[in-house]
Amino acid sequence: MRGTYIGGQRMLVVTVYGGKLIIPSMDLSLSPELIISGSLELPLTKYLIKNIKQGFTVFDIGANLGYFTVLLGMLVGPTGKVFAYEPNPYLNSLLFDNLSINYVQDRVTISNKAVYSCITKIPFYITKRFMGNSSINRHNDEYFKLYSDQIDKIEIDSEPLDNYFDKFDTINLIKIDIEGGEYHAFLGMQKLIQSETVKIIIFELNKMMLQKDWCVFIQLLNKFQKSKRVIFHKLSDEGDLVPTKIDEIAKLDFCAHVVMQIRP
């Protein structure tokens, strides 16, 4: 066990990479695995440890309570930059605390917004019991067949990642896990991709959460693939790259880690 109850429906957890996290004890999505093993998504954890270097500029889109944000902050060091987006107000406050207790807040910029295709206000559906499943898409019947959950609807600010176009020569990595919002996030970073400013994008592909955006997202990814400048991989259990094609991934309906590399 990696967790200790500290009151106020919170646990203090020690992660496999040596970080400390305050997590909600009542969450049924991320918290059980963190309490038991101190880890989330080990293939991605291992990939980041192997590949993120000091001085890198990286983005964590869908930062949640900060498991990957803290890790990225440690890896890029004081000369690097991390930009973390988490629109859930409660998780955003935990994210801030977790950066502070790990002393990486000097290199991390937090935004309480959603990453989207444009600057606007959008509805956001907060999952109360499975806190890792909040989405810009209203949860459908398929979701409730799998999860006994409660949903709060709020309105949030959103912005595109193309806001950072011309601000950095290189963005080394963008990690995106936003439960169905990935298509709109990609629409909002076309300049970063086309200019080859961003080098690697790692994202989740989840048909159930993407809903009506599934087909158009697959079409967009295939368009990138045909350009010959973009190659796709999955991650092995050890966090190594495994070559793949979008059509192969699309047959699965779900892939936790799609790695998109943009080559010059």
Automatic annotation (TrEMBL):
This is Methyltransferase FkbM family. It comes from Tepidanaerobacter acetatoxydans (strain DSM 21804 / JCM 16047 / Re1). The keyword Ribonucleoprotein does not apply. Keywords: Methyltransferase, Transferase. Residues 60-214 form the Methyltransferase FkbM domain. It holds the Pfam family Methyltransf_21. The keyword Transmembrane helix does not apply. One of its GO terms (biological process) is methylation. One of its GO terms (molecular function) is methyltransferase activity.
